[in-house]
Design goal:
Shape: globular
GO molecular function: GTP binding; manganese ion binding; phosphoenolpyruvate carboxykinase (GTP) activity
Distance between the termini: 87 Å
CATH topology of the largest domain: Phosphoenolpyruvate Carboxykinase, domain 3
CATH architecture of the largest domain: Alpha-Beta Complex
Protein name: Phosphoenolpyruvate carboxykinase [GTP]
EC number: 4.1.1.32
Number of strands: 35
Bound molecules: guanosine-5'-triphosphate, sulfopyruvate, manganese (II) ion
Structural class: alpha/beta
Keywords: Decarboxylase, GTP-binding, Lyase, Manganese, Metal-binding, Nucleotide-binding
Family: Belongs to the phosphoenolpyruvate carboxykinase [GTP] family.
Strand content: 15-25%
Number of helices: 15
Number of domains: 3
């Protein structure tokens, strides 16, 4: 008989390794793989290397299962369809586990659960895992996926190994993170983040699998054991639930490591903006899911001579350098951007990136092998369309062709306007931080904070309408979403705000903090007051003038923050209602203040940082004087 490569698992015996050489696994990785193979009992093990051969193999496998189809109009492009029950992140089933509850949750007087970093005790988590993971990969392949968040082997990067039974996760992680055997070398004798993921449907399955997309929504859990740097995810194969490098490692885990080590992991795009004179400014933009980070990063400026280049579209790791500047780096390798609504008008950058080696999920497709979604309907020229559920679709059909949280996954490096420093391990120096959410009423188009602590306050008080990026899907209710990080802060919210406030130190060049609102509507007609997208460059221009030309004095002071004077904002060629866009009303702010105070009271309780209390009362004073 042919000698077969195996991993010897204690208590179980040899488990075949169908690809990769287990002898090349670092000792601790091999141990991890063997222990978890004992727990989950896969039929075989596959050690991934991130190559295009591997991509093709996953694609063949998923195609045979009916989950994936090649999009013939591009090269190496695929469309995937998930189960309609597995289309977005599930916050209610996402937990952070630490020995002491205090490290994670702020204490509250009432029994309602925290909206930020839901704590689960180590004991309860063990029970939850015991009820799910034993034998969960029976009949399935266990993929061993070594990846790095950040350039491989660099000082601030994080080495990770994810075990998964989802070939889709392998296919997409290859785009989103740096998957390579070099990560195993970088691990060497060292530690790594342990990610354990299963779709939760062992074979043979006793239930019918919709769209052949196995998942177990009723048993879903995503849990972070912070002290052990371990992430456990069960029951979902999609997005932030299963691509564990993204929200789980690069935000929740990283934010808590950043707290301990003095840096920040934030839900932010990083962009370079160059003006017609060739002067470049780097900006970080924090917004809740579905509020415009990717669109901003891939924007085509409407003003002539301006250029925007992408560094990152979703996550920023930021730390102050010895020169006192704040450097931001993108730990990801790809973009997992919202597909529906991306068009030549709104977001031409997305379409220019989607030419080769990408995966779209839960979009529609045309009979000539192209992707299709809301906003692209006019491009249908007689082709037949199949919607995200696999059903025939026609213009005028009631249901939209793509799911509202349909996504494209594409390599950052394949985007034509990628910045040459996009993968710099040090990052780029940030001059301004922009926050923004969906605020149909009351909040101006752009506001500059009075100071660092006022900026932190504005960001902490950020609210936005819910979007389809997480379940339950879009209601239009306003939700608090501090720093756009509500689902991603991996530790105590009070400590998080203190950490942000503590960034300000003598000798540091603090970026200015702004708040933007692309989504204000006319109070009577309900129509959007601002055209958005490429026109947002006009707001960036003002922000840059205020930031880099320290002496540029032109502002109006409002109770909410500094506002631009009409003559300082380039509005030429636009028909906009400046007065409505910037109206700041006493009654509105009074309600806003009360509501924000209540929120902090509920979510922070006694851990509200003193400085935030001062910001609240200064805000109150300013409102009183209106
Ligand atoms: P996540 O990937 O979920 O974190 O979202 P994101 O912050 O990257 O949001 P994205 O850029 O994908 O934008 C989400 C949706 O917001 C888009 O599909 C647009 O419909 C809308 N959007 C983005 N920018 C603008 C804008 O300037 N104006 C308006 N009106 N809508 C915008
Ligand atoms: C978000 O929800 O902010 C995303 C998509 O970027 S997911 O990867 O699903 O978290
Ligand atoms: Mn995001």
């Amino acid at each position: 008989a042919l000698a077969q490569t195996v991993i010897l698992v204690d208590g179980l015996g040899p488990v075949p390794v169908v690809k990769g050489d287990p002898k090349l696994l670092p000792r601790k990785v091999l141990q991890f793989v063997a222990q978890k193979a004992f727990l989950m009992r896969p039929r075989a093990i596959y050690i991934c290397d991130g190559s295009i051969y591997e991509r093709d193999e996953m694609a063949r496998k998923l195609t045979a299962q009916g989950v994936l189809k090649k999009l013939g109009a591009y090269s190496d492009a695929y469309i995937a369809r998930t189960s309609p029950e597995d289309t977005a992140r599930v916050e209610a089933r996402t937990f952070v586990t630490t020995k002491s509850k205090k490290v994670t949750e702020t204490k509250k007087p009432d029994k309602g659960s925290s909206e930020i970093a839901r704590w689960m005790s180590p004991e309860q988590l063990s029970d939850e895992l015991d009820a799910r993971f034993p034998f969960c990969m029976r009949g399935r392949m266990m993929y061993v996926l070594p990846f790095s968040m950040g350039p491989i082997g660099c000082q601030f990067s994080k080495n990770c190994v994810q075990l998964t039974d989802s070939p889709y996760v392998v296919l997409v992680t290859r785009i989103m993170a740096r998957v390579s055997p070099a990560v195993l070398d970088a691990i060497g004798d060292g530690d790594f983040v342990k990610c354990i993921h299963s779709v939760g449907v062992p074979r043979p399955s006793v239930v019918k699998i919709p769209h052949n997309w196995p998942c177990a929504p009723s048993k879903l859990i995503i849990a972070h054991r912070m002290e052990k740097k371990e992430i456990w995810s069960f029951g979902s194969g999609y997005g932030g639930n299963s691509l564990l490098g993204k929200k789980c490692v690069a935000l929740r885990l990283a934010s808590s490591m950043g707290k301990a080590e003095g840096w920040l992991a934030e839900h932010m795009a990083i962009i370079s903006v160059t003006n017609p004179k060739g002067e470049e400014t780097f900006i970080a933009a924090g917004m809740p899911s579905g509020c415009g980070k990717t669109n901003l990063a891939l924007m085509k400026p409407a003003l002539p001579g301006w250029k925007i280049q992408l560094i990152g579209d979703d996550i920023a790791w930021m730390r102050f350098g010895k020169d006192g500047k704040l450097y931001a780096m993108n730990p990801e390798n790809g973009m997992f951007g919202i597909a529906a609504g991306s068009t030549d008008r709104t977001n031409p950058g997305a379409l220019t990136a989607l030419k080769r080696d990408f995966v779209v999920t839960n979009t529609a497709e045309t009979s000539d092998g192209r992707y299709l979604w809301q906003g692209l309907e006019d491009e249908i020229k007689g082709q037949e369309v199949t919607d995200w559920k696999g059903k025939a679709w026609k213009k005028g059909s009631k249901a939209p062709p793509a799911h509202a949280n349909s996504r494209f996954a594409v390599h950052c490096a394949d985007y034509p306007n990628i910045h040459p420093l996009w993968d710099s391990p040090k990052g780029v120096p940030i001059s301004a931080i922009i926050y923004g959410g969906r605020r149909p009423a009351g909040i101006p188009l752009v506001t500059e904070s009075f100071s660092w602590s006022h900026g932190v306050f504005l960001a902490a008080a950020l609210k936005s309408e819910a979007t389809a990026a997480s379940v339950p899907a879009a209601t239009s209710d306003l939700q608090h979403d501090p720093m756009g990080m509500r689902p991603f802060i991996g530790y105590n919210f009070g400590d998080y705000l203190k950490h942000w406030l503590s960034m300000e130190k003598p000798g540091r060049r603090m970026p200015k903090i702004f708040h933007v609102n692309w989504y204000r509507c006319h109070p009577v007609t309900g129509e959007l007051l601002w055209p958005g997208f490429g026109e947002n460059i006009r707001v960036l221009e003002w922000i840059i003038k205020r930031t880099t030309k320290g002496q540029y004095p032109a502002v109006l002071k409002s109770a909410y923050g500094y506002l631009p004077r009409q003559e300082d904002l380039s509005l030429c060629g636009l028909q906009v209602d400046f007065k409505e866009l910037f109206k700041v009303e006493k009654k509105f702010l009074e309600t806003e203040l009360k509501e924000t105070r209540d929120y902090f009271r509920a979510q922070l309780y006694k851990e509200t940082p003193a400085r935030i209390g001062i910001e609240l009362s200064e805000f109150e004073d300013r409102i009183t004087r209106m």
